[in-house]
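User: I'm new to structure prediction. If I give you an amino acid sequence, what do you actually give back? Let's try with this one:
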Amino acid sequence: MIDLSSSTVLAEGKTKIIYSNPADPSTVYMLFKDDITAGDGVKHDILEGKAALDWQMNRDVFDLLDRAGIPTHYISSPEERVSLVRKLDVKINLEVVSRCVAAGSIVKWGKIAEGTRLDPPLTQFHYKDDPLHDPMLDDAYIAYITESKGATEYVEMRRINEAVLLLLERAFAAAGVQLLDLKLEYGIVAGKVVVIDEISGGSLRLWPYRTENPDLSKPNILDELDPGGKLDKDIYRTGDSLDSVLRGFKAIVDITASFKDLPLDKLTS
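Assistant: Good question. You get back a string of structure tokens that encode the predicted 3D arrangement of the chain. For your 269 residues, that looks like this:
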């Protein structure tokens, strides 16, 4: 059993605590918490059992990303609620959101009909700041600084984010669930851009298919999906009971537990 009493708390966020690893300073431990928040931290509850579910899903997803050759900070999950990850040289203070089906805030501010297929995926960068409500960076300016200042990190983050989106879309589809969008964070380790932080029920939006063989070729697939059966953190955002939130997260973990058995060639072809 890992004893964190001799470790230093390096950082504490809304859902995790980061501890030093005295045995290897190039790595750190992430301890998942039972806290759940929404509305940039305004809504906050303690949901017993959430930490273990977040940890399980995070383990299953990062194991799949590593199997697919996607660069991450993840090393292992040595015990329940604890992950071992590489220590960052630089944390990039952005949230990167990729969407393949329109839902959530983009329906309101982007005036895109809910359920619209986004092909190729739509990727946007948000400055990570709760008091400022994570404002979005302008695409034209990102293109400008990429070309004029050699800020290739944006190109790499976009490439990785969309690769993860498509990989996980296929993985969840195998269980009859549509991945609509996801939000990832990034850092620099040994000069490389890598996926960091956690991937849990608050990182993505998941709606089951209405039928066993949905028609996903249509420009809008809302009729093929069951928004009322959502499994992700939107259950909490919309005010459902905490028990409902826990059931949704448990259903996700039941799916991600099968990721290890999915043939990689069918997910990446």
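You can read the tokens as a compact description of the fold. Here is one thing that stands out. The helical segments are 50-67, 105-109, 139-149, 153-173, 234-237, 242-256, 264-268.
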